[in-house]
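Let us work through a complete example step by step.
Step 1: write down the sequence.
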Amino acid sequence: MMIVEEREVLVSCILAVNRLDGFLPVAIDSILTQTYRNLELIIIANNCNEDLWSFLEEIKKTDSRIITRRTSIGQLVFNLNYGIDIARGKYIARMDADDISLPTRIEKQIDFLEKHKSVNMLATNFVRINIADEIISKPITNTFDNKDIRKELKYSNPIAHPSLMFRKCDVIKNRGYSWSFWAEDYEYHLRASRNPDYKFHCLSDVLLHYRVSDSQMTANNDNIVNYADESALLYREWIITGDKAYLLRIILLSRTFRSVSRPIKNVVRRFFVKKNH
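Step 2: predict the structure and record it as tokens.
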């Protein structure tokens, strides 16, 4: 399947972690057992305790491709940028500490990006899993090409952050991750999308298992900080672009509107899109 020799393309996979739980070893193993072998796994231990750091130092001895760094800063954006800075790979792959990358993920993403030089960011489809590793959803993503992703970005983030791969030169050109405690990937996508030549794509293949728990979903839905954070960047895009779709997204995110049934939400959205395009 590969169109280039592995030694010619190095992939740097960046995983930031701040606690030791039963999911981390599985996440690490899912990267180290990829069919594509020419990669480095950069693990940034951000604001971690000694137990986590000791674990990482031990696991690093088992595979020379593991690189560990420790910082006292718990904010994800800083640690992702740090990982990008020290990455040696042509491509940067993202990974979260509780998810699972399926074995051919890196291989399929490299193959696509090497064949499609104009694509700047590549995601994959994914399914949700619970704490018992059981699949609890159908494939989530239904938006795959650049045009549709760009349209959807005005209303939601249609691509999974831990499934992403992009060229290091592109993320540096776009000045890396900028801000946001809850939506750093969405902020990056919106900023990159202002460049009409920047191209997004998502593979239809399910190549990531994205872990969620009931408590996590409840906390995310009720988190006023999450709402304020995302609303701030959406309002920024409205100021810069003048596109009213971003204002609609702020309304859709509000607690009041979240209590409205999905069919009504869809009617409102379709009406708004028709009126503004």
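Step 3: interpret the result. The chain has two domains: 6-212, 222-275.
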